[in-house]
Amino acid sequence: MIGNYVGALKNWVELQAAYESFFLVADLHAITVPQDPVDLQRRSLEFAALLLACGIDSGKSTIFLQSQVPAHLQLLWVINCVTSMGELQRMTQFKDKKDRSAGSIHVGLFDYPALMAADILLYRTDLVPAGEDQEQHIEFARRIARKFNGRYGEIFRIPESYTPRTGARMMGLQTPTTKMSKSDRNADNYVALLDPPDAIYRKIKTAVTDSGSEIRCDASKPGIPNLITLYAAVSGEEVSSVENRYVGKGYAEFKRNLAELIIDFLRPIQARYAMIAADPAMLTEVLQSGARNARERSERTLSRVYRAVGFLPGEGDHRRRTGGWRSGSERQSDIALPSKTKALHDRRSIMETNETKDVTAAAAAETDAEAECMTDCCVCCCCDTEEECSMEE
Ligand code: AMP
Fold this sequence. Notes:
Elements: H1 2-15, E1 22-25, H2 27-30, H3 37-53, E2 62-65, H4 71-80, H5 85-89, H6 92-100, H7 107-121, E3 127-129, H8 135-152, E4 160-162, H9 197-205, H10 223-235, H11 239-245, H12 251-277, H13 280-309, H14 339-352, H15 361-374
Parallel strand pairs: 1-2, 3-4
Helix pairs in contact: 3-12, 4-7, 4-13, 7-8, 9-12, 10-11, 10-12, 14-15
Bound molecules: adenosine monophosphate.
Adenosine monophosphate binds at residues 3-4, 7-8, 130-131, 133-134, 167-170, 179-182.
């Protein structure tokens, strides 16, 4: 819907020129509320097609279905194990949904921010372009990343949120005091990107305005400022220039022009969507190739995480190569641990038993160096692949 476009998608399209970008259709998140299976399949493809129609370029960016990249769920578990219940209970979106859910609330909905943190952190993300409603979840991802890094070494990059200046929080057309949402039961509360022109005219015409007649962003009134923001975000103009153009003009003319603006804006998107929807083989190929790339990239981070927490590599797991086993006797263990894992283990045991003061500076430095190295083993911070990387360990 149009709120998603101005709050997030517009920035996604623009940022892909400057950043390597990953866009996922969040089908795992979708089932945090009940979904009809056939409908979920249809809507997942519809979403992917809409991303392409809006200008996401599959040649530049990676587009994939979240459920096709297992690392998201694997990292989720690790994140769950460093997240307290209280942190998730404080999330505003969870509290809102819980209050509206007549008693039955699922663990998945509660855990939603942890999965979102996995979505973000797996790709060593710098920027998360999103609407204002996601800021608290992005802050949670930052906090988890710091907490994990503090405990296990510098594995995660700390992401920044990126919200648009205009339209970061579009409000409902009929209820301008609540956020515009695609899951609203009242479809007149939003303009869907695939709405036909007559529906757009009707929705904008019946959108709630305020008492008075001025077309101006008066902070005490919810309706007209929301429509002005929508106008400015879609046209790319400043809010003030929209206000100036409509000085002395009436709501009816303003709403008619806004409807026309949105219809003209959506026309090419809808035409591209029709072409993409008519070629399901192409869409499948885009999503399969996106999932391949996303799997490759996410598993790289996941393997660093797994090594850091102390999971041993499985058979054929080339990315979780441990760099050999230490010979000789190991402290508190009959079985030799891989050297890097042991370095961190030793360091943590020292901290936990409060014996740090007894360790000589030289021994501490040696342990630190080894633990630090562990975060970049297999692929160092400068290389993208093991093949490129000349580091032995
Ligand atoms: P969702 O609809 O929750 O899947 O959100 C997809 C993206 O659109 C996220 O980045 C949201 O922050 C953004 N978004 C959702 N609703 C709005 C809204 N009413 N105004 C601005 N951005 C929004």
